[in-house]
Write a structure and sequence with these properties.
There is one protein chain. This protein folds into three domains: 92 residues, no CATH class; 146 residues, no CATH class; 166 residues, no CATH class. By secondary structure, the protein is α+β, with helices and mostly antiparallel strands. It is elongated and about 155 Å long. Helix 4 crosses helix 6 and helix 7 crosses helix 10. It has 14 helices and four strands. The relative contact order is 0.15. The chain has a four-stranded antiparallel beta sheet.
Length: 443
């Protein structure tokens, strides 16, 4: 079939194509006129993804931004957001919606507010634009209602985001505070065990992780190597340690009572250190006066060396206890500091999102789009008409030109004899039928 044959078929079936075209256009126009219009109002917020936390100074991980955006879009459809929107729009007292709720299916057991909140959620669409801008769109048959609902959705979402942030921080703060209490109790127990062991053995650990006897041995060794004139300063290290303990007691007494285990341990450590300082000063005075000389210092040095060697296992055990105390204190400090940060975060009023612009009432409906619907129906009607014309032509093949008689290269049309064409009825023209058969003459 060439283009000439195709055009002849269309011309013969032109009435059918026109009828299909007109019917489709009229149908689309009627539908577009009867369908209630739908208006869309849009509210936008900027998610402060790269903004640093005012307390911790950290920002959100950009690699998990997609998951965070999905969670925020789900939050907008949550009852925590749609419920307050229902209250603000005043739908709970709307007679039409009350009647619609009463006519709901019996299987629907939701309360009135949740039933309305679901309608709000069904009319919401969200999208992420410009990387961090969350766009909230609400659809309604009333432009004023669409604008009011979009504004209410944005405000409810910001309030819900802030409440969620505060609740999460408060929950974590409570957990960290509980862990801090446990860590503090463990630190106190470790301190009491260490203090009891010091009382039992008489060994006191200095701040430089060295016991008093080892420190005294080192002082005597240096004193023995010094000339007689320098003996008076041999005990300066112990006096420094005593001064440090006094300063530590003064600092701790501001927060702890006199019966606190840590305070008692410090007092015991201070008494032991005071005895050591007094003994060292006495020995230094004797050495300086020449009463005993180097022999006395050497004798004391040997005694201290023997004592240090004999109590080495106890010193090592005391070091382990001190390490346990330091570990428990560090755990308590870190946990308490994190709990304080989260407690402060729970009181912040920054939701992490910022509203952008104002919500405007739509002036034109987004649906139905009459030009688009009528134009699409026109194209569809022409297509349907063409399809029906070709289908009828295939079912009732007609000879409409010389080309239709050229069946093959060996079978060609020789000539054409034209006759007057009878007038056909409209139905026969549409269906492409020939003239009616002549009736036989009656007798």
């Amino acid at each position: 079939m060439n283009i000439v044959q195709f055009l002849r078929i269309l011309w013969a079936r032109r009435i059918l194509v026109i009828v299909a075209f007109v019917a489709s256009v009229i149908g689309a126009y009627v539908v577009a006129s009867l369908v209630p219009p739908r208006y869309e109002a849009t509210a936008r917020v900027n998610i402060d993804l790269l903004k640093q936390d005012p307390i911790s100074g950290m920002s959100k991980d950009v690699r998990s931004a997609g998951v965070y955006f999905d969670a925020q879009q789900q939050l907008i459809r949550d009852y925590a957001v749609t419920g307050p929107v229902v209250d603000r729009l005043g739908w709970l007292t709307d007679p039409n919606r009350i009647r619609a709720y009463q006519a709901r299916p019996a299987a629907d057991t939701r309360d009135f507010r949740r039933w309305l909140a679901q309608q709000v959620a069904d009319a919401i669409s969200t999208d992420i634009t410009a990387s961090t801008v969350l766009q909230i769109t609400y659809r309604s048959s009333n432009p004023s209602e669409a604008k009011a609902a979009a504004e209410a959705l944005r405000e409810a979402y910001i309030a819900a985001a802030l409440a969620t942030k505060q609740q999460d921080a408060a929950k974590l703060a409570a957990w960290y505070n509980d862990q801090a209490a446990i860590a503090r109790k463990a630190a106190e127990e470790a301190e009491m065990i260490k203090a009891a062991y010091e009382k039992e053995t008489g060994i006191v650990m200095q701040s430089n992780d060295m016991d008093l006897d080892s420190g005294r041995l080192a002082a005597l060794s240096s004193q023995l190597a010094m000339p007689a004139g320098g003996a008076m300063v041999a005990g300066s290290g112990s006096r420094v340690q005593l001064a440090q303990i006094d300063a530590q007691i003064a600092q701790v007494s501001k927060n702890l009572g006199p019966n606190h285990p840590e305070m008692q341990a410090l007092r015991a450590q201070r008494a032991t250190m005071a005895q050591v300082v007094a003994q060292e000063e006495a020995e230094a005075r004797r050495a300086a006066s020449g009463a005993t000389g180097a022999a006395a210092i050497s004798q004391v040095l040997q005694q201290e060396k023997a004592r240090v060697i004999n109590q080495r296992d106890k010193v090592e055990r005391l070091r382990q206890l001190q390490a346990e105390v330091d570990l428990r204190r560090d755990q308590y400090k870190k946990t308490a500091a994190r709990g304080a940060e989260l407690a402060l975060a729970a009181s912040l009023t920054d939701p992490g999102v910022t509203p952008i612009g104002v919500v405007l009432a739509p002036t034109k409906p987004t649906f139905p789009n009459k030009p688009l619907m009528v134009g699409g129906a026109a194209v569809l009607g022409i297509g349907i008409g063409l399809g029906l014309a070709l289908l009828l032509e295939l079912l009732n093949r007609r000879v409409r030109g010389v080309e239709d008689l050229n069946i093959s290269p060996t079978v060609q049309c020789i000539g054409v004899v034209r006759s007057p064409r009878p007038k056909l009825s409209l139905i026969r023209r549409i269906l492409g039928l020939g003239p009616p058969e002549p009736r036989p003459a009656s007798a």
